[in-house]
């Protein structure tokens, strides 16, 4: 069971980063909306993980993205922020001892919880990402617009993917 | 200590977040050219402003030195300008001879003593024989106008017999029609802003407002602005016309002057007054 989760996550990591780097990197609407689907990997990591492992995975994933995007540290920082939001949100919204689901996916947690969870995580990730990328406050309007539109795009794709791989039997 | 460990382990998510976030930002700033330049720029801005405020006093103290250097630079530029404007087109232009093309050079000097209230006014400047000053050199003002001639020279100082002196006569022309005259001061006029142009031939028509410039016949370079005519046909008891003019130059506020070195002065002098061996 445990090794199966690990293998699934590894496959998911490769798949999402492959899609991100070779497909979505070339996508974008008027330089305003660019989806970052790879955060889904961090969203779907299993519940029982130690925080340090979560942070390391987030940082490593971010660094891998940075290597392909030539933006050293930007994605890594954004992913670390996302991990922090994920931990905080889960600890606030769920009772830690009563969690019997393996991972926070749409099929286990339901649409309402998952959409809010994904929205908060993606929003903070994108905020940090775009602000670190522009690194100035003078273009704040443009940055916020990019951030918001990209956030919508990413969320749409994440929900799409989650509905495609929806497991009806598990709930 | 144990409580501290418990505290840290309980909120490990936050502390780990701080650590990783710091590493991430550090990497971002260190490895990305733009972010690095942005942080350094803002730092420099703050530091620069602070230094700027601190240096106000220092700059004020240095004003004198800055003035000197600016005057020197001005003299250099004006010398260059002269070289451009005094190129003799009648000469063979294929040979560029800067030694003779440039007849005049300017040397800046600071006025250390000035007087305007006497009948015969003399001022002192801080340049002397060490700087190549000789008696009889022309002196002009940096802005506009003539000042006078060098009278006595010591090693580091020189006195200028200014225009406001009974013996000073400067050859000038009315710019409009090149009518020659001589510029004098005095003769019942002790206003330092006014002078007279005398010995203008009778047939010349002069109007109020005509510009008067140096003729270039004497020691001054040609075309240096002197003043504007303010009153024409001043009655005199000789057969020439006279006119009153307002000087461009304000003698009372002179701080810097340019001493004009004429390369051909000696040559001209020996040519015009040949030394007679029998005398």
TrEMBL record, chain A:
Keyword Transmembrane: yes
Keywords: Membrane, Transmembrane, Transmembrane helix
Top-level taxon: Bacteria
Residues annotated as transmembrane: 5-24, 36-60, 72-94, 114-132, 144-166
Name the UniProt record assigns to this protein: Rod shape-determining protein MreD
Species assigned in the record: Pedobacter fastidiosus
UniProtKB/TrEMBL annotation, chain B:
Top-level taxon of the source organism: Bacteria
Domain Rod shape-determining protein MreC beta-barrel core: start-end pairs: 111-261
InterPro entries, per the entry: Cell/Rod_1, Cell/Rod_MreC_2, MreC, MreC_beta-barrel_core
Keywords recorded for this protein, A-Z: Cell shape, Membrane, Transmembrane, Transmembrane helix
Spans traversing the lipid bilayer: 12-29
Keyword Transport: no
Keyword Electron transport: no
Pfam name, any one: MreC
Similarity comment text for this entry: Belongs to the MreC family.
NCBIfam families: PRK13922.9-3 (NF010532)
Protein name: Cell shape-determining protein MreC
Source species: Pedobacter fastidiosus
